[in-house]
């Protein structure tokens, strides 16, 4: 079988065998990185919900009207929808970051008084940690 050269950048000549070997090495490197990237980018709905609540609270604190009626109405479109989601949360955190966000929120909410978010956030973080220990 004849070895055919393939023109490469910079006038270097590669044989077909060298080109196939190089592309196989690159493919192996890419497949080895793929699971790591997928794990790093794992979605966590709890993390998203906590971020939405914090964003809603920041929006409310920055933009809510000063009168009670206006402030109450603004709360209905800023922080109350994500608060309701978190108050009714029953699933474990899907990632360590989600568990940490839940614990931070529980601590913050516990400092403000009797918050309905403390229990669900503590349970979500605990469930994640219990699952992690079982792996």
Overview of the structural elements:
The protein is mainly alpha-helical. The chain has two domains: 36 residues, no CATH class; 90 residues, no CATH class. 71% of the residues lie in helices and 4% in strands. It has a two-stranded antiparallel sheet. A hairpin with a 5-residue loop joins strand 1 and strand 2. Helix 2 packs antiparallel against helix 3 and helix 5 runs antiparallel to helix 6. The chain starts with a strand and ends with a helix. About 18% of the residues have low confidence.
Poorly predicted ranges: 6-12, 23-39
**What share of the residues lie within helices?**
over 70%
Order of helices and strands: EEHHHHHH
Mean pLDDT: 81
CA-atom Rg in angstroms: 26 Å
Work out the strand percent: under 5%
Name the shape in a single word. Answer: elongated
How does the SSE layout of this entry go?
Elements: E1 5-7, E2 13-15, H1 16-40, H2 45-63, H3 68-77, H4 80-87, H5 96-112, H6 118-134
Helix pairs in contact: 2-3, 2-4, 2-5, 5-6
Q: What keyword list fits this structure?
A:
6 helices; about 140 residues; single chain; 2 domains; two-stranded antiparallel sheet; mainly alpha
